[in-house]
Every structure is written in C-alpha cells, then in structure tokens.
Amino acid sequence: MKERLNLQTYEGSRSIFRISVIAVILFSFLAYMLASGWGSVKISELNIDSRGSVMQATMYTPRNTNSESNLPCVIFTHGLSCNHSTVNPFAEELAKRGFAVLSVSTYGSGESETSDMSDPSYGMYDALQYVRTLNYVDQTRIGMIGHSQGSKNTSAAVDMDSSLLTLNDLKVNILYDTFGQTFTEEEIQQDADALAENRLTANELSAYKVLAKQAETYFNTRLKAAVILGGNWGSEAQDVSVAGYTVVREPNTNMCYMISTFNEGRAGTGQQNLSKEEMMAKFQSTTTLQPAQWYALDQTSNAAAPASTVLGGLFDISYTGSAALRDAIDSRTTRMIVNQIGGHAKDYFSTDSARYILKYFEQALQYNCGNITDPATVPMSENSLTFLYREACDLLAMFAMFISIIALAGMLLQTKKFSDLRMECTEPLSTKKSAPFWISAMLLVLATMFAEYYVATKGPTLGFKSEGLKHFLSLDFTANIHLWFMWILSIASFVVLVIFGIMTKKSTGRNIVKELNLSMSVKKVLRTFLLSCVLIVYAYLLLAAMKYFFHQDFRFWDNGMKDMLPQYWTLCLRYMIFILPSFLVSAMMVNGGRMKDMNDGLNTLLQMVIAGVGIYILVAYSYGTVYAQYASTGIGSAPAIAFISTWPMLINLPVFAFINRKLYKVSGNVWLPAFVNTWLVAWSMVSCQSQTGYYLLTNFATKWLGIF
Question: Under the phi-then-psi rule, with left for phi > 0, alpha for psi from -120 to 50, and beta for the rest, what region is 105?
Fold first, then answer.
C-alpha cells in the first residue's frame, strides 16, 4: 500500500492524484448539497448588465419557484477586498428558509466590471432594480444587507430608494399640490384620508383615492428592510416639505445596525465611526441604546427631537403577536442595534450574526418557510445552521486540490518532457540536536510575529508612493498589507537563512544554497516555471468544473481561489514578480531544515508548525486579551484593523510549508514549490479581492496587458 502511494513513482503519484481528485469532487458535491438544502434551493450564476457594465451575482431560489410564488427577496453584498462568495453563508441560510436571495459582487469587485461610478451604491441600487423585474418576487418585501464597505453601499441604496416622506406625508401633499388644500402645521400630522373625507367633494374624493392608491403602491414597494453589518450607517435624516412646511424625516426603511463588540480599528462598543450620542440621535433616544430591541421612530411628529418607542426584544415579540411592531414594520419606522460578540472578519462567519440576521428578516419581511402570518407555516429555527459544515467541505476540497497538484507534478516529472527537472534531494543537514536548526527556527517564529505585528499596526497606511507602481499593482490596500507581510518576512527569513547557512557550513562543511539546486540554468528555471503554469492551469480547470456543476469555490472563510476573467491572469503575473522572492526563500528554509533522525511526516509537520506558530501566537494573544477584557468589563478594545486582512495567513503559512516540502521531495528543485506557491497566492489575492479600477481601460490590448 505504501508503495502504491509513493510520490517518487509514476504509479504512486497517479494513485494519489486519482484519490485527491475524487476527494475534490466528493467534498464539493457535499458542499453544494449543504448550500442548497439538499437540493431544495436552486443556485444560479448571473451577470446583471446595467450602466454599461456587467455585475456578477449568484441567485438562490426555492426549487419550485414560479411566477405565482410571490417570495420576499434579500440582496447581499460584501466588504472591501472581497467578492460576493464571502457573504454566501448567510445567503444560503436565508434561501433554505424560502427566501429569494441575490448575492452580488459590487462594481469593481470579483468579476464585476467597474461602472462609471455615478452610482454611490456601487451596484446595490442597480441590483435592487434588477430584483424588481423578477415576477416571482413580492415587490413589497425586499430587503438588503451589506458588510463593511458593503454597508456604505447599502446605506447609499437606502438613501436612493427610500421615501423620506411617510405615506401620510405623501397623501397630505396630494391634497396640497393637486387639490389646493392648505393646512396648519398641526393638521399635517392628522390622518390624510380623514382630511380628504372632510374637505373634498365627491368627485375630488374619487380622484384622491386613485392618487392615494398610487402613493401607497409607491411607498409599499420601497426597500422595506436593510441590515448594516460591521460598517458605517450613512443614511441621514433630511429636511422635506409637507404641505409647504419644512419637517425632518428619517428614511422610511426598517434598519438594523449590527456591529461586533470589538470591531477592529474602531472606538467604543456598539459603534463604528459614529459616537454613542450620534447613534442615539438616529434612534430618537436620549438614553443608552438597548441591543436587539425593536425601536419605533416617531415619523409623525414635527418636533425638533421626537422620541422613539422601545417595543420589545427581537426574540421576545413578533410581527404576528404585537400590533405595535406590525404597525411599525409596515410603516418602515423600526430601528435596531445588535452587538454580536466577535471581530470584523468574524461578522460574516459567525453563527451569532447568522441567527440575528435570520430572525430579523423573518420579522421584517414576515417570512420563514412560508408567510409567518399563515397559521400553517412552520418556521425553521434560526439555530438550525449548516453553513459551517459547507465551509468545512470547501476547505477539504481545497486541501485535496493542493494534494492533487503535488501528485500531478510527481506524474509529469516522470515524463520525458519534464524528467530533466527532477534532481536529487539533498541529504538532510540537521539532527534533532542541531543548534543551528533550533536557533533558526526560533528566529523564524520571531520574524513571523514581527512581520504580522508591523502590518497589523500600520494597516491601511502601507502602500506605494509611485503612481506607476500603484497602477501596476492595482488591487486595494489589503493586497498591500499581504505584500508587505511577505516582503518583511522574506527579508527576515533571508537573514535567518544566511545565519543558518553559515552555522551549518561551519559545523558540517556543506553549502545549503548549492545543495538545494538554487543555481540552475536559466533554461531549467524557465521550464520549471512552465511546469508550474501547467499545474495551475489544471487547478483552475478543476475549479471551473466544480463551479459549473456545484457552484463551489476552493475557499474557507475569506481565503481561497475562485474563477476569474481571463485578463486577471496578467494581474496575477504582475503580483508574482513581487511575491516570488518570499517563497523562494521559504522553499530554501523549509527544505534546508530537514532532519536526519526524524521521519518525513514528522519533519514536514514540524516545518508547518515553525512556519505558522508565530502568527498563531500573536493573534491568540491579541484576541485573547480582547476576549478576557470583554468578559470582565463588557467592553473590548480591538486590535489593529490589519489583522482582518491577514487572516488567510493562518491557513496559508503552514499549508504552503507543506506544499514546499512535498514538491521539493518529488522534484529536488526549490524553484518548483516557489513558483507554485507564488501562483496560488497571486490567484487567491486577485480572485478574492477587489479589482478596483481594473476595467477603466481603453481597449482589448490595454485590458490584457494591464497598460494604464
């Protein structure tokens, strides 16, 4: 059995390749079944054409949906440096409860083209207009949710779509504008229908009822509910005119503001860029806001500071059981703040967030496996969640894909085309008692911690002064954080490598650089790069198949590889230039540190631990202290915002050490693991982060070449 699974032989590599591909298919299929509620939900990939630009999206609908369905619909979008796959966990959970769900990559993200930027919502309003064309959607029950940067886009869509005038205001203005009725400032607060009955003639009243019905249709088809998740609440109260009087009105959309108790980079619990007092003002409250409570705004009063009413808790009262809540939701005047435990990146990977979102939309849109006003409806519990299992399946599929790459490399290196790239692996230089190894390992752990600490504290300030370099490396600031992390770590690792090489040569007389076959001919280096290209093309074709059949990416949380437009590969190549040195040094460190008296499996595991333990220690300490502080005081002082940009390193560092070790074992060539790991990181960065500005190009040639 051991021989049949030996990567050093063609047959062994082929066996591992077959098993790993089967594993990819199996786990992707299981992920799809979990995402679709075991087939009850239809998942469709869409391209929405608007403003002369195409927006990528995924649509979830119940399997039996038709024009008679009349379903509520929720539109989801993501934050900066992400695409819509990031928020799909919540989309899936809502879809399994019978909602129609549209998950959107906003303009300039994922495979969505960049628009002319005349839309401040970056496509969310256009997505809303698209939903309004769907004959199976109940136009009176449309919701929206955006995370982080997506929260700003959602707020903009609310401002663009909501009626600032209440339904009664609209009717009063009909009486004022169409029928010439005048009112005192106190009278405009009275019921417009009653005023019409008392003031209009029979013919006028008949005409008024037609216009009032049109006003009702307009008001009831505005965006009904929105969730601001982990971001900025941009919607503001504004001055409007009612019967010639200037009054202040809030957007008439039910709003829920969800912010983690220690959201990174923000001051205070429950807020983001808004102060406690500013949030209280948005809720028309003079006292500290109570989390997960329904607030009903007073949109009828013309007072300078009207007071809201606390109706009850999210899990305590319901649309069907509370007349006050029902009236407030129908009039679109509710507000809610939720403080879930966690950090910014956990917002869209949190069972707590999911439960709040599911319960909120159940009440705000009156649906959960059927209309909740229907006594026959049996709602699905908000505790019945499966997205973490789906994420685990996608993670296992991604790992299986990595192993299949290694196995395919083993097969190809046994062929005539690439056999000359196989070299003898150097004999291990160290033992369990080798001081140079353990000193170097300690220094590497410290280097990893320093690199992470540096980028975490500098965060968004890390960038490029050169305008040309900004255009050449056109991803947003989070990509800069990744690059700086790898650059700092590669420089530090190079220093450690030199120290290790000097100590090793002194104790053994062997030259680590020479023995690891770094100094190959240019021709062999280029052919090794060609081999890496073949491996990545295979991996991408495998992804494309899983995407086509099962709607799954190779991903976990906010880390992974997904499908891209062809021109994005040129952007990958540009980033690879700056990523390669880091992985070349890493390949030498991982493979130069093997031990004579340790079996290969344990040796590989040790290298994975050394590669990743530094960042695990730092993250554990940073967030552990936050959790401890929160447990004792109820307030958490969040660590630096850049931590949220380097979460992928928790997986990448040990996994890429594994790939480093295994690819070197089958090739004896440190260039191959360096090229493959560089490809994988560039692919992940470009496909999972925003392509902001990438489509503002003049012709096919400039799009392909990346010339600005």
Answer: beta
Range of the domain at 186: 165-221
Same domain for 171 and 255?
Answer: no
Say if residue 328 is in the same domain as residue 460: no
Residues 215 and 230 in one domain: no
Total structural domains within the chain: 3
What is the distance between the alpha carbons of residues 623 and 625, in angstroms, rounded to a whole number?
Answer: 5
Looking at 347, 362, 385, the residue that finishes a domain is: 385
**Per-residue pLDDT tens for 687-696?**
876 554 433 3
Q: Identify whether residues 265 and 286 lie together within a single domain.
A: yes
551 and 496 housed in the same domain: yes
Q: Is 252 left (phi over 0), alpha (psi -120 to 50) or beta?
A: beta
What is the CB neighbour count within 10 angstroms for residue 530?
Answer: 14
Neighbour count for residue 187 (Cβ, 10 Å): 14
Q: Would residue 552 count as lying in a domain?
A: yes
Collect all residues with Cβ–Cβ distance below 8 Å to 317 and sequence separation of at least 6.
294, 311, 325
* 412-441 average pLDDT score: 84
Percent of the chain predicted with pLDDT > 90: 43
The CA dihedral of 672, 675, 681, 686, to the nearest 10 degrees, is: -140
For residue 239, give every residue at least 6 positions away whose Cβ sits within 8 Å of its Cβ, in sequence order, or none: 246, 247, 248
- Within 10 angstroms of residue 602's Cβ, the number of other Cβ atoms is 10
- How sure is the predictor about 640, in pLDDT bands with cuts at 50, 70 and 90? low
Domain boundary among 204, 221, 238: 221
Cβ neighbours of 298 (radius 10 Å): 15
Same domain for 639 and 628, yes or no, is yes
Residues 157, 169 share a domain:
no
Q: Looking at the DSSP assignment, which residues form a beta bridge with residue 226? A: 144, 255
**Which CATH number covers residue 364?**
3.40.50.1820
**How many other CB atoms are found less than 10 A from the CB of residue 307?**
12
Of 611, 604, 591, nearest to 652 (Cα)? 611
Q: Which residues pair with 312 in a beta bridge?
A: 294
Residue 15 lies in a domain: no
Pair of tokens at residue 34: 């979990």
Cβ neighbours of residue 499 closer than 8 Å, sequence gap 6 or more: 436, 439, 440, 443
Q: How many CB atoms lie within 10 A of CB 647?
A: 18
Domain match, 188 and 91 both: no
The residues pairing with 371 across neighbouring beta strands, listed in sequence order, are 367
Contact 188, 176 (CB under 8 A): no
* CB-based burial, 479-495: b 16+ in 10 Å, e otherwise: bbbbbbbbbbbbebbbe
Does residue 67 fall inside a structural domain?
Answer: yes
CA distances from 413 to 420, 660, 667, 696 (A): 8, 16, 7, 42
Q: Is the pLDDT of residue 323 over 60?
A: yes
Residue 445's Cβ-side half-sphere holds a number of Cα atoms within 13 Å equal to 16
H-type alpha helices, 370-434: 387-412
pTM of the complete model: 0.88
* Distance in Å from the first CA to the final CA of the chain: 55
Is there a contact between 221 and 162 (Cβ–Cβ < 8 Å)?
A: no
